[in-house]
Design goal:
The protein is globular. The protein has one domain. By secondary structure, it is mainly beta. It has three helices and eleven strands; from the N terminus they run βαβαβαββββββββ. The strands form two sheets. Strands 1, 2, 3, 4, 5, 6, 8, 9 and 11 form a nine-stranded mixed beta sheet that branches. 28% of the residues are buried. The C terminus is likely disordered.
Length: 216
C-alpha cells in the first residue's frame, strides 16, 4: 500500500539517452554504492522534500514512464553536461560519490545554457528495472504544499494522494520505487562537458556517510 505522501517523477529519453541505458547506468551506481543512486531532475522540489521527510518516516519516490513522446531536444540535444558538485537542502557541500554521475542536456529549448540541475538521492535494495508494480490515478494527486492539482509540465512533484472518488482517471503505471535517503535532494552545479572528467577528488567523505535518518 502506498503512503499518503510521496515524491513522483516521470521518466523517458533524456540527454540523448534512452531509458534502458539510463536504468543500466543507474543500476551500476546502485551496485557500486551499496544501494544508493542519484536521479537527475530538472525542477527544484527542495521545500516540498523538507515537508515530505517530516510527514513520512520512510519517504519514497515512485517512477513512472512518460505517456508522451520525447521532445526532439531530449532525443538529440546540442550538447551534454556532467554535473560535478552538489549542495544539500541546507546549502552545504555534498561530495558526489565515486562512480555516480548525473547528466543532462546543456541547454534549454530556447538555447539558454543550464547553470544548475537537481537530483533525488535514492536507495533501493532491488535491481532497477522497468516493471509494472502498481498504478497511480493522476486526478487524485495534488501538490503536497499548495494542494493544487498537478500541472502538465510537472515532471517531478511531491504529492499527496487523495481518497479515491473519481471513476474516470488517467492511470500511470509505476515502474519501480526507491527510498529517499539522506540528504534526500541536492542542487547540482559546476557543469562539465560530457567528455571532461572532474579534476577534484570525489571520494567518500565522512559527511556523505552521515547515517540516514531512515536507516533501519
Amino acid at each position: 500500500m502506498l503512503p499518503k505522501h510521496f515524491c513522483w517523477t516521470r521518466f523517458g529519453t533524456e540527454a540523448g539517452e534512452k531509458i534502458d541505458s539510463i536504468l543500466a547506468r543507474k543500476e551500476e551506481e546502485r551496485l557500486a554504492t551499496g544501494g544508493m543512486f542519484l536521479w537527475g531532475i530538472g525542477n527544484s522540489v527542495g521545500p516540498a522534500i523538507r515537508d515530505l521527510i517530516r510527514l513520512e518516516e520512510r519517504p519514497i519516490v515512485l517512477f513512472s514512464p512518460m505517456r508522451s513522446k520525447p521532445k526532439a531536444i531530449d532525443v538529440a540535444p546540442s550538447g551534454l553536461t556532467v554535473w560535478s558538485e552538489a549542495l544539500d537542502l541546507d546549502g552545504r557541500d555534498w561530495p558526489i560519490p565515486e562512480g555516480v554521475k548525473v547528466t543532462s542536456r546543456q541547454g534549454s529549448e530556447t538555447g539558454r545554457i543550464k547553470r544548475s540541475h537537481y537530483a533525488l538521492v535514492c536507495r533501493s535494495s532491488s535491481p532497477l528495472s522497468a516493471l509494472n508494480l502498481t498504478s497511480l490515478r493522476y486526478e487524485e494527486l495534488v501538490n503536497l504544499q499548495s494542494k493544487n492539482k498537478l500541472g502538465a509540465s510537472q515532471v517531478t512533484a511531491v504529492v499527496e494522494q487523495l481518497a479515491q472518488g473519481t471513476a474516470d482517471c488517467t492511470s500511470y503505471p509505476v515502474a519501480f520505487v526507491a527510498e529517499l535517503v539522506f540528504p534526500y535532494f541536492v542542487k547540482l552545479s559546476c557543469p562539465l562537458d560530457s567528455e571532461v572528467k572532474a579534476s577534484r577528488p570525489r571520494g567518500r567523505s565522512a559527511y556523505m556517510h552521515q547515517p540516514s535518518l531512515l536507516a533501519a
